[in-house]
Write a structure and sequence with these properties.
Blueprint lengths: L2 E7 L3 E8 L2 E9 H6 L1 H9 L6 E3 L9 E2 L5 H8 L12 H10 L4 E3 L23 H18 L7 E7 L4 E7 L2 E6 L16 H7 L18 H15 L8 E5 L8 H8 L6 E3 L9 H13 L5 H7 L17 H7 L4
Parallel strand pairs: 1-4, 4-6, 7-10, 10-11
Antiparallel strand pairs: 1-2, 2-3, 5-6, 7-8, 8-9
């Protein structure tokens, strides 16, 4: 059975979860700044339980199962959607990914929602962020957890996942053990630190939408709890168009600890579906890191291979720019510094 590691690169922390023969071997969380400041130490951490057979690395907006050692400069720009010299966002994350690529470890970059063929193309129109790779990983944990609790196969699971992180809010729809729709952090409800989907007129009035702008304007600094909770509730109901009768609504993310958030969600979802906080099997690492470890285990032929097959992860394809019509792909590529 494989020894694997999953990585969740968050705005506040970078979490790491390791499995061997399906059992927990590594359970850590580091402040994002600390992890990015010393990539060599981070590489050593990944190796601490022993040489891994596979690492699901920090994948940003995702790539269709690209090995880190084979990733081109174009791949990395598409995964992190940042032009040369761009300082906004999580600074240094691309450098960390590069260090992992050079480390000799078997690191793979995993897909975002936009890459999955289980999401119909019409839902991808003019979309890039339907859920980053870490949100796909969190959904994998939800599938594994629900299958175990209900004693069913991954193909019998269904839920809406609300991922309310320290900066962004996102929501995913899972039907038949497959992600079928998603609202990403920059295209979904208002986040704790980030504004979420922008009013087009606000974007126009701003004159220029920078990467840094995507990371501000959230509900937390304003203590706008009603806006935060109501936005999440609307996201659940919107995704019920794609999964009309979910078995559950699953909650995860750092923002659930804020006063009034969980209570407001439970009250607002009463009668919609049973609501449960997704905990997983680790004590420290966040849900996305645990899910990334599950994906790595399944890809390596371990305990969770049926889950990975059900999610059709190996069929992931394309780029985050493939479904644009409002702007051309050429325009988007120029913005990223690509020819």
């Amino acid at each position: 059975m494989p020894r694997v590691v999953g990585v969740d690169p968050g705005t506040v922390s970078i979490d790491v979860c390791g499995l061997e023969d399906g059992e927990l071997t590594l359970d850590r969380s580091l402040p994002t700044g600390e992890a990015l400041a010393d990539p060599a130490a981070f590489v050593r951490l990944l190796q601490s339980p022993g040489p891994p057979d596979l690492v699901a690395g920090p994948s940003g907006y995702g790539l269709p199962l690209v090995r880190a050692a084979a990733a081109s400069d174009e791949d990395m720009r598409l995964a992190y959607l940042a032009a040369p010299g761009e300082t906004g966002g999580i600074g240094g994350l691309r450098d960390l990914a590069g260090a992992l690529a050079r480390s000799g470890l078997p690191v793979v970059f995993t897909p975002g929602v936009i890459h999955l063929d289980t999401v119909p193309d019409h839902r991808k129109l003019n979309r890039v962020d339907m859920g980053t790779a870490d949100k796909v990983a969190a959904a994998a944990l939800g599938i594994a957890d629900q299958a175990q609790r209900f004693g069913c196969t991954p193909a019998e699971t269904s839920f809406v996942l609300l991922e309310l992180g320290g900066a962004f809010s996102a929501a995913l729809a899972v039907q038949g053990g497959r992600i079928v729709d998603g609202l990403g952090g920059t295209s979904g409800p208002i986040g704790w630190r980030a504004a979420g989907a922008l009013d087009g007129e606000v974007a126009y009035l701003a004159g220029e939408v920078t990467k840094a702008m995507l990371f501000r304007g959230g509900a937390g600094p304003l203590r706008a709890i009603d806006a935060f909770v109501e936005g999440a509730l609307k996201a659940v109901r919107a995704l019920m168009v794609s999964v009309p009768a979910p078995r559950e609504v699953l909650l995860s993310g750092r923002a659930l600890t804020e006063p009034g958030v969980r209570e407001g969600l439970e009250t607002g979802l009463e009668g919609v579906a049973p609501v449960r906080q997704l905990q997983g099997f680790a004590r420290i690492a966040k849900t996305a890191a645990q899910g990334a470890a599950i994906l790595a285990d399944g890809l390596a032929g371990g305990r969770w291979r049926l889950l990975v097959d059900t999610m059709r992860l190996r069929a992931a394809h394309g780029t985050v720019l493939d479904h644009l019509s409002l702007i051309t792909m050429a325009t988007a590529r120029r913005r990223l510094g690509l020819g």
